[in-house]
Amino acid sequence: MIAKILKATLKRASSSVSMEMEIDPPKKPEVGAEAIKDDDFFNAAENGDSSFFEALSHDQLLKALSLRNEDCRLLLHVAASSAHPKVVKILSAADPSVTGINSADEEGWAPLQFAASSGNVEIVEILLSSEADVNLKNNGGRTALHYAASKGWLKIAEILLSHGANINLKDKACWMHPLHRAASTGNSELCELLIEEGAEVDAIYKAGQTPLMSAVICENKEVIIIVIKSSKT
């Protein structure tokens, strides 16, 4: 009798477990760091997929920060050059010691130079607040201010100067100052700003030209007048 009762009890318990197993949905396997390819990180940085980075664990994010692509660029380079401020903010805030704020790619470009060249004010501000070196030069000897001047980005030039950008640094190839580049673009407001902040108006670059000559070549009367008024020669 006792044996029959035990047998019936075990049968009911076995049936109950079987039903629970059928009712509970199967669990999805967790996606580990090994399941994410290096290209996935760079594609997310290039496309501005901030949710991808927000879903990473802190350890995964730290490991990803040291990855470099075929151009020797970090994720921060890619996000900055692709103009994605939210991704730049996530990456730059992860860990200052490994973020690569001032790291160079194979041509010596740092993330700040990419941001200044592309004209993204928000990214420039994020990088500077994360202690980006405002006077860092690339392989051509050009700083972020050189690129802001070349593209005519007045607001970015103002921000860089307010963070201590050296206004009279020469590039390596042509010995050009930011003012030479600004004069070549014909941006009178930018030229005026640089001169007011102490740019050398009569500086001569490798081709023997001064900012005035650059302004004459681009035939911008406003820039010519501004430079002449400020010239000592």
What is the quaternary state of this protein? single chain
For the largest beta-sheet, the strand count, sense and barrel status come to: none
Structural class given helices, strands, pairing?
Answer: mainly alpha
CATH H-level superfamily of one domain: Ankyrin repeat-containing domain
Q: Which CATH C-level class of one domain is it? A: Mainly Alpha
Radius of gyration: 29 Å
Keywords: ANK repeat
Pfam families: Ank_2 (PF12796)
Describe it:
This protein has 233 residues and is mostly helical. The chain has a domain at 39-133: Serine Threonine Protein Phosphatase 5, Tetratricopeptide repeat (Alpha Horseshoe), CATH 1.25.40.20. It has helices spanning 2-23, 38-47, 50-54, 58-64, 75-81, 85-94, 111-118, 121-129, 144-151, 154-162, 178-185, 188-196, 211-217, 221-230. α7 (111-118) runs antiparallel to α8 and α12 (188-196) packs parallel to α14 (221-230). The radius of gyration is 29 Å and the shape is elongated.
Helices, strands, pairings?
Elements lengths: L1 H22 L14 H10 L2 H5 L3 H7 L10 H7 L3 H10 L16 H8 L2 H9 L14 H8 L2 H9 L15 H8 L2 H9 L14 H7 L3 H10 L3
Search tags:
233 residues; mainly alpha; Serine Threonine Protein Phosphatase 5, Tetratricopeptide repeat; 14 helices; 0% strand; Ankyrin_rpt-contain_sf; ANK repeat
In short:
The protein is mainly alpha-helical and 233 residues long. The protein has helices at residues 2-23, 38-47, 50-54, 58-64, 75-81, 85-94, 111-118, 121-129, 144-151, 154-162, 178-185, 188-196, 211-217, 221-230.
